Every structure is written in structure tokens, then in C-alpha cells.
Amino acid sequence: MKFYIPLLVLFFGWSVNGQNNSQVQPVLEHLPMFDKIRDFTMDAKGKESYFTIQSPNEEVSVIVKSVNGNNGWDMPAITSFSGKYKDLEPFLSPDGLRLYFVSNRPVDQASTTPKDFDIWYVERANSTSEWSTPINIGAPINTEHNEFYPAVAQNGNLYYTCDCPGALGRDDIFFSSYDDGSYAEPISLSGNINTEGFEYNSYISPDDSYLIFGGYNREDGQGSGDLYVSFKDDSGNWTKAIPLPVPINSKYMDYCPFVDPTNNVLYFTSRRSQEPGSNMVSMDDLLDYLKSYQNGGSRLYKAQFDILSLK
Fold first, then answer.
1. Residue 2 lies inside a defined structural domain of this protein
2. Which residue in 20, 135, 158, 219 is deepest, having the highest Cβ count within 10 Å?
């Protein structure tokens, strides 16, 4: 089944940094009828995407896949490895052969009792192969604490969120280098990225040169959660993170970034809400607002924006 939605019905946008060709708009191809889409990842060719659909209170959290064919994006389907436990935050490796995700599924296959959130992955031989059964990434990444939002560069280096000991704040972005087929002991990134507050949802560029992440209620933010970017300098150190411009950042919760570097498109999730004004005078007005894309639900957006322009 294919699905099509007229662009003019739900399109909206604003200029970014004065660039008229840069717009924030809803990702209509991925089912705007769902009020809680959590995240997004896509292969380098733009042929398949994965994202999380959740129930309002997150009792249900499943990873779905949509394929881009000749007639548009297919209706999403639950992936072969998801649907029984709380699964979320998929991330495709740059070669498209491994999909990382987060789950509370038990490590012991004989158990049915959920545990804390760990990082898992599935893998395949090529882009048309079936995914394997899920594999727990194991120590030293996974611990008795919660690990979230994995992102992997071409060199295998892993970035993720954890509420682990050693964090500067409540949640930090952690890093583990990949050497000789194994992961090194993770470290919390420097104060140029992490603070005493909440840092989360990091996206690493394929070449490991810039990091986009979420920061909550920072002084230089727009309010609630905002997206920040940090670049590696010539010495391999991360520069002081700067917020992405308005209207990518807003007064609402903005999070879960993903970049299509080929086309300079930034995808992200936001809970932004359109001001109803004085038009709420009938039940039809109320229902139209509740059905609208900007109704405060967790929705997927995109913006044509060159991250490197901020370097």
C-alpha cells in the first residue's frame, strides 16, 4: 500500500538564518496521523528509513521500516526484530549493513522479564538481506544503567547517551572508540558538549567530524530542548557547542537529529504547536486543530540546511 498526502495541505516553513531556500517542514511521507514519532534514520541512498512509533504513554514503542519505491514511500511495517519489547532510536551504520537500536528486552533469551535499556544491533550481508536476530552490544558499552540513542561513524566510533557514573550531569553524551574490532572503555565528552544538565540524542557525521545533540533548558537555548552542534578541530578536540538557528530550534522540545549529508537535509523531532488564535469557536475548529500536524505531538520535521555553514 502506498500513501500520498497533498503537500500544500500541511506545508509550513520559515527561513533559516535569512536563507530563503531553507525551510522547516513536516515529513509528510511518514504518516502524520501518528502523534508520537520518536526518531528517524535513513540509508545513504534514501531508499529505506527506520523510525519509532510510540503510544502516548510509551507502553508501546516499536521500530518500523518504510521503503522508498517508484511510487513513493511504502506504508511503514514493524521490523522483524521489534514489537515485543520497548524498542526505539534506530541508527543505520553508514554502510547500511548494521542497524543499532535501544531496547529493554532481556539479554537472557530464556527470560521474558524486561531489563534496563541497552544498546542492541541487527546486521545483514547486503541491503536486500533479512536482518539477523538482535545482538546485545555488551560491555563496556552496556551497564546496569540506561544507554540510549546510539550513533556510529564510518570508523566504528560510537556515541550514545547514558545516565552512568562519571557523567558531568544528569545525562551525558558518551564516546567509545572502535579499535581492532572492539570498543574501548567509554568516556563522557568534555564540557564543550556536556553540562550539569541533560545532554542527549547525539548524531555523529559519517566522517566523525561533527556532532549534533540535544541540550535541555540551556541559557543560550530557545527554551525546553534545543539542538546543538560541535565540530572537531585540527587537534581532534570538540569545539564549544553552539545552538542551531531558529526556526530549527524553537521554544518547544526539539530533539532526535539525523542528517542526510548528501542532500544537506536535517531531520529532527519536535513537539511544536501552532497557536490556535481566536478560531476555536466550534467543535469543528477544535477537531481540525487536534488533527493538525502542529498540535504538540511528537512529529518529524526536516530542514534544508548545511551544518558546515556554522563551522
1. no
2. 158
Average pLDDT over residues 142-156: 96
Domain of 57, in residue numbers = 7-310
Distances (CA, A) of 287 to 12, 145, 273, 276: 19, 42, 15, 12
CATH number, residue 192: 2.120.10.30
DSSP-assigned letter for residue 57: T
Q: Is residue 1 part of a domain?
A: no
Closest CA to 255 of 7, 34, 40: 40
- For 21-48, the pLDDT digits (tens) are 358 988 866 566 788 999 999 999 999 9
Domain count for the chain, please give it: 1
Paired with 268 in beta bridges are 301
User: With 0-12 CB in 10 A as exposed, 13-18 as middle and 19+ as buried, what is 280?
Assistant: exposed
Of the candidates 274, 256, 308, 281, the one whose C-alpha atom is nearest the C-alpha of residue 11 is 274
Query: Rounded CA gap, 50 and 73, in Å?
Result: 12
Q: What is the pTM of this model?
A: 0.90
CA distances from 264 to 100, 253, 260, 305 (A): 23, 22, 6, 6
- Reading the block at residue 285, the C-alpha cell is 475548529
- Domain assignment present for residue 278? The answer is yes
Residue 252 lies in a domain: yes
**Distance of alpha carbon 76 from alpha carbon 64, whole angstroms:** 6
